Amino acid sequence: MAAGVNGVIFQNFEPDSINGTLEEMIEKGIKVVSYDSDNVPEGTTGCWICSNYDTGVVIGTAAADFINSELDGVCNYFIMNSKVAFMQDRVQGIIDTIAEKCPNSTLAYEPPKIVLAEAVETFSNMLTACPDVQVVCTGYSTCATNIIAEWLPEIQRKGGDLSKYGVFTCDCTNLDLEYMAQTVKGENILRSTVDLGLKELVPMGMITQCEAAIRGLDCEYAEGEVVTFPHDLVDLTNYEETAAKYNVEI
User: Fold this and answer.
1) Torsion of CA 183, 122, 71, 106, to 10 degrees
2) Distance (Å, rounded) from C-alpha 132 to C-alpha 18?
3) How far apart are CA 60 and CA 100, in angstroms?
4) Cα 126 off chain centre by
5) What band does 224 get if pLDDT is binned at 50, 70 and 90?
6) E strands along 13-161, which residues?
C-alpha cells in the first residue's frame, strides 16, 4: 500500500489478521483479488476458490476405487495433512470418503498438520512406523511428487510390485501428467490427480492460481464475483487427453 500499488493478489490464510488492511486498501481504490478463500472484506474485486472438501472427495474416491479393485478392499494407507485451513477441508474429504468406501482398510497413521518443507521427513517417520503402507493421498501435487521421490526407490529396492501401490493427489501439474505416463509403463505409482480447470499447467499449481487471479486486476469478471474451480479427476484412463488439452508434451 505504501508503495502505491494498483492491485493486490493474496491467499487469505488468516483473515482476522489481514482483513483490516485489505479494507483500508479497498477504501483507497486498490483492487483486491483473493484466491483459495472467499472469506474476504466487502468490496473485494473477486475471488478464485476451489470447493476443497469436494476436491478431497474426488481424490478419496480415486484412492478407494484402487483399493477396492486392486487390493481387494484391504490396505494400510496414509493421508498427508496440512497446517493450511483450506487444505484441511480437502484432507477431510479424503478421510471421509476412504473411510466410507473402504471400511476394511486402515488409516495407518494419524496425519499430523505440517508445512510442505516437513512433508518428506514426516512421511519417512510415518513409513518407519508402518512400512507396509500401500496408498498415500495428498491434497496438492508438490507434496505427492516429493514423497514419490522418497518412496519409489525404497519400494523398488525391496522388489515391490508397483501395481500394488498408489499415490493420489491434486493440481494436475505437468509433473503429475509425466508421472502418470510413467505409471502406465510400470515405472511409477502416481495414479490420479485433480484438474482444477486452470488455463496453463506449471510445476507448482498454486502459482497457476495466482496467475488466474490476475484476471481480476484486469476486470475480466464482475466486481465481487466468486469463481469456483472445477475438480475433475485425471487418472490413467484420461491423462493423455488432459495433456493434449493443455498442449503438454509427455
Assistant:
1) -160
2) 44
3) 10
4) 20
5) low
6) 31-35, 46-50, 76-79, 106-107, 135-137
